[in-house]
Amino acid sequence: MNSNGASSSATDGVRDSNPPKRNSKRPKYSKFTQQELPACKPILTPAIVITTFALIGIIFIPIGLASLSASERVVEIVDRYDLDCIPEQLRNDQLAFIQSSQTNKTCTRSVIVPRYMKSPVFIYYELDNFYQNHRRYVKSRSDKQLRSKASEQDTSTCAPESISSDGSPIVPCGLIAWSLFNDTYSFSFNNEVLMVNKKNIAWGSDKSHKFGRDVYPKNFQSGQLIGGATLNASIPLSEQEDLIVWMRTAALPTFRKLYGRIEEDLQPNQKITVVIENNYNTYSFGGKKKLVLSTTSWIGGKNDFLGVAYLTVGGLCLFLALVFILLYLFKPRTMGDPSYLSWNRNAAGYAD
Amino acid sequence: MDINGEARVPPSPSSLRQKFILCLPFYYVIIQRDEDHKLYVSPPIMKRFVYINENEAIKDPYCDNRISNRKYTLLNFLPKNLWEQFRRFMNQYFLLIACLQLWPLITPVNPASTWGPLIFIFAVSATKEAWDDYNRYLSDKQANEKEIWVVKDGVRKHIQAQDIHVGDVVWLRENDEVPCDLILIGTSDPQGICYIETSALDGETDLKTRVIPSACVGLASEQLQRIKGVIECPKPDKDIRRFDGNLRLFPPFIDNDLCPLTINNTLLQSCYLRNTEWACGVSVYTGNETKLGMSRGIPEPKLTAVDAMIDKLTGAIFLFQIVVVIVLGFAGNIWKDTEARQQWYVMYPEEGPWYELLIIPLRFELLCSIMIPISIKVSLDLVKSLYAKFIDWDEEMYDRDTNTPSHAANTAISEDLGQVEYILTDKTGTLTENKMLFRRCCINGIFYGNESGDALKDVELLNAVSNNVPDVIRFLTVMALCNTVIPIRSDNGTILYKAQSQDEEALVNAAACLHLVLIGRNGNTLDIKFNTSIIQYEILDILEFTFDRKRMSVVVKDCQNDKILLFSKGADEAIFPHARSGQQIRTSVEAVEQYSQLGLRTLCLGWRELEEDEYREWSRMFKEASSTLVDREWKLAEVCQRLEHDFEILGVTAIEDRLQDGVPETIETLRQAGINFWMLTGDKQNTAIQIALLCNFISSEPKGQLLFINGKTEDEVLRSLERVLLTMRITTTEPKDMAFVVDGWALEIVLKHYREVFTELAILSRTAICCRVTPSQKAQLVELLKSCDYRTLAIGDGGNDVRMIQQADIGVGISGREGLQAARAADYSIGKFRFLKRLILVHGRYSYNRTAFLSQYSFYKSLLICFIQILFSLFSGVSGTSLFNSVSLMAYNVFYTSVPVLTSVLDKDLSEKTVMQHPQILFYCQAGRLLNPSTFAGWFGRSLYHALVVFLVSVHVYANEKCEMEEMSMVALSGCIWLQAFVVALEMNSFTILQHLAIWGNFTAFYAINCIVSALPSAGMYTIMFRLARQPSYWITMTLIVVIGMGPVLALKYFRYTYRSSAINLLQQAERSRSPFFSIGNLESQLKSTEKDAASLSPQPKSRSPVCEPLLADSPTAIRRSIGSSTYDFFQPSQSRLSSSYSRNYKSK
């Protein structure tokens, strides 16, 4: 606290130096109780504020540039196939096509690699207008059941996919597992198969702790309505990585999930042939399906948002700093000028 | 009632019940009469009959002496405490929410997220209650188990205090505490006198005499053990100054007369027996029915303006929440029927249950329930008790003279101190020291002490005394005799006087200085030593002082010549009209005038010789009146009136009561702060005006002007009232200190008939002096100002101020010489008047600022998280999914965001010194600039903006392959935590080490806790925090959120701070800029030059006259820049201002 010479008013209690009497009820002195803890009292001086804004601008713009360039370096191939993979004649009744078990759902697409893609190349499927975050959906799972065999019966939270028609529990239960994505992709280049590595596409922690090694699928997709993919009943859940990825529900209705990796570099202008088993029904609610091939960088996949936002914000901050400097130069205000004291100024205001 | 009681047989116990029932209708009549006749509180007619030393069966109707201050018992604690807590709307609301959450179909999160905090809050309140109650139980137990001598079956026994029954004879020794209310029937003193100290009861430290009733005089202690009789007394009440009962003894102690009992025959619970070897008495009220027990009881909780505003805002948020719920519920149902049915993976059944339509709205109700912060009550309670502690701890408000620290008895209303608009102050003992000194006198037309200023040193008076001038000697005799002073001979032979009234003590002391010494009071005889001779007087009757009679008299018999004399002293208007006709009293009237011009307190002395017959006749009436049970005070006054006439006026005494230290400065400062002062005093007009002039209360001509409202009849009063009002209206434009003066008589008429006119006057006038007012009038004036929606503070020191103190929004008691009665009834007790300045400007102002910030911030952070949930629900099919998990939500509300903001109790926007130098700054608090719908709208807007920033940034950065629920939720939550840390930091004005610890420590705690939770495999967010912390994009996102969120806030705040500065900002700049050019001294001098305008214009009625709006110096737009907190002002401040003033007008009508 500063006390630049201002005389304290006479009535302020002056602390006497005499030690208090023994039975004195005088409050004990401490800086806390007297609210006199040393405090720093920053005020918004032009210097501080202008420096802050300028500094933010100066720091933000390089970060923005770095993010943007990282995002630019990411090579991304997006191919929407949900419409194209329906034979011409069946396009009027997409639902019948996808729900029928008779129709041939195999579909061949080719994509061209625009730029050199360094391995690993991540393969994602992207769904759109798919509400994995819907309340009814997101709650319909049983983490306990997934974790251990002992909790197999624990399906209370899984309605309406908790038990099979004969009353035995479905493993894994719930709508999420039931609606597992079941399109498959296979890649080839010049008739040579590009190997897709589907190992370690799920989080390690999920595999080791959330999905039990001793839990095997049971009664899965055995009901009247078949949702999505079926599971190999002989493989424990901890190895069913597609399921594990799918069970990490997405927060937004448009999302990508990892399908696998191509561990080969892809050259520019390579024409890759993709054979898609188009099984998953997004037609009933008009959702899009896309196949995405993408490399990665330190900020993740291709996402210009951070870079653009940083550049904009940095620019705005510099602009603000400039405005404040100009204001300071052309409309100077002395700090703490008493003539601005509201009662004084308004006194004048009322007078006229 | 049969007062003569000649043939009256006490009712047998069996007929008791019947008697009660018969009395009942009568009881109601009495109560009603009370209401329009507030001056006299009549005792209830319902009586109890106490049979002295009777067997057990009869004692049955009354409780034993078990004192219980406990609110609860072990069994009823839980239900009763819960019931009390659930009487609050907020608690009911939270309970409803918590119950709804038990329905798994609709609950968005684990019910624990509401039940946890709810149970915690309830547990905290309940534990506090239980702890208090347990302490009360312990102290009760100690009192109840005290060993007491009681007569049982004719033998004296030691029993525990709790086993005393009504009718028992209790024996006390010197320095014993009285265990219950007793009627004194015997003492060691042959005259039947004993002395008690009543400090625990009313705080008065002097010794009081108590006498045994006449019927018991002369009974030996063996007889007392076998005494039988009946005492008729009112039902228990809490009036510690009154006891109207009758005593009749049974054979063999038969005494035909019904012996009246007054408060002078009682020993009340918690008093101490002093200077008396032993005393014994019959217990009449026991346990919780004693006078002390009845006057305990929990005072009505006071609600501060801030609390009221918070409640209002809570209501508004509640409405907003309902709207949101209805809109989203509607949208959700539509989405469900159109979209969700096609989403096969959601598997919506075709036919839902009948309540299907309700499910989604209810889900949103639960999701939005966090809009009303559950933590706000706990936080507010916590900081409020800390404000109170700061007051208790304040060293600068510790009074060294009397060794009294300040104390906040009411911990809940500190904010109101900062919003005080009117101070109603008592004069004597509050503004003055109440240390009376005899200064001048006028005896039989001769003025003494005019030259030297001290009559005791006036040679002429000394000569007159030594020459035995009869008038002077009589004058001194009245001074020495006409009082209730008790002389106590200390060990070294000097005589100390213990008096209930400071004036009496001053008079007796003065008489002693002039060689007429009161040396002893033995029962009814008084010994006076004049020079060397001792004169004895027998006191026949004491006509006690009351506020309405304004005089007291004694009837004494001069033992030398058996003449019966009436000595009286009192206020001039209570004595002069009763002077013997034909007597020259002009000089005395002049003397009164002259003395009160000097600010001295005057008393007129008079006497009269009584004829034997006249006295005997009167004495009978007096006795009759003193044994009535109904309206005794009033009847006594009437009887006294019959004796007090035809006085020989002896002269006038003038007593000086000095102003306390620092009173003028304090009043000056507080008036600069825009607080209006009213002085309410029982003193006479001239004295009051003089004191008012002395302490800057009013200014003398030509700067100020006094307007008098007086008159004896309604018409006169009305005319003068209207004249004053007219003058007041005209002169509001001139910078002139206007004040009106009204006396008790005119006030009575005004309050009864012209309340509205007076209300208008009250609003216009900054200063008022009301003299000759009774305690109830004081309370009525407080009530009047309160009804105009002003925040009132009443300050006083004596028993006559208690009602006004209790009535006012804030009651401040000065623990001074008139005892602690006022201090006990008050919300705050201080040692000296000058501490009021610090109490209001420092403690009140800080408390208001801090609470304003804390409460709005609590809403801000709740709204922030709630808006994010709402935004998320727009992206999740309006299905009511919660983005955050239960643990995070709970921790966010009760921990992460509650802890740092608590340190705002240490925040100081301006230093104490600056506030003291620029008290005008208090306007901001008074006008409620820091907490009103407009500032709240700012916070509301800020939370909406921040929610948008957090949500949109998280959604865009964590899109596509990163779009995972748990991660997204954690990113959004950390965004909120980052933002709130910076918001608190930006709004905080001063950082002590504790603030840094709380803000940044909380920040690290957030990460520490989440890392720990992320390490638990069973937790939903296992490894999430580690994954995020490894991603550079997470940290970049956080920085982005903070800069986008805080950048505009900072820029706006800076712009306002520099280019649209409020007075607070300017003073902050002045205080903290180290540049010598703008040092405070410099500022001060510049301020001085404009001070006149500031002082005259800002607080002047002008700005508020059209709409009765106080203290709005700033233009309405100024509210908007009142403080940087409001980023977005949605409400037009002028509008809200207008509406509030409308309501105010209506209220006053």
Polypeptide structure, described:
The complex is a heterodimer of chains A (352) and B (1149). With 352 residues, chain A is an alpha+beta fold. In chain A, 28% of the residues lie in helices and 14% in strands. Chain A has helices at residues 46-73, 94-99, 135-138, 143-147, 175-178, 204-210, 241-247, 305-330, 342-351; strands at 76-80, 106-112, 121-127, 184-189, 192-194, 196-197, 255-262, 271-277, 289-294. In chain A, helix 1 runs antiparallel to helix 8 (305-330). Chain A is extended and about 90 Å long. Residues 1-22 and 346-352 of chain A have low confidence and may be disordered. Chain B is α+β, with helices and mostly antiparallel strands. Among the domains of chain B are: 303-387 and 853-1048, no CATH class; 398-430 and 661-840, HAD superfamily/HAD-like (Rossmann fold, 3-Layer(aba) Sandwich); 434-656, 3-Layer(aba) Sandwich (Calcium-transporting ATPase, cytoplasmic domain N). Helix content of chain B is 47%, strand content 17%. Chain B is built from 41 helices and 33 strands. In chain B, strands 14-33-32-31-15-27-30-29-28 form a nine-stranded mixed β-sheet, with helices on both faces. In chain B, strands 17-16-26-25-24-23-22-21-20 form a nine-stranded antiparallel β-sheet, sandwiched between helices. In chain B, helix 3 crosses helix 5 (112-144) and helix 22 (714-731) packs parallel to helix 24. The longest helix of chain B is centred in the last third of the chain and has 40 residues, at 835-874. The radius of gyration of chain B is 36 Å and the shape is elongated. Classes of the chains: A alpha+beta (352), B alpha+beta (1149). Chain A: Residues 1-31, 142-163 are annotated as: Disordered.
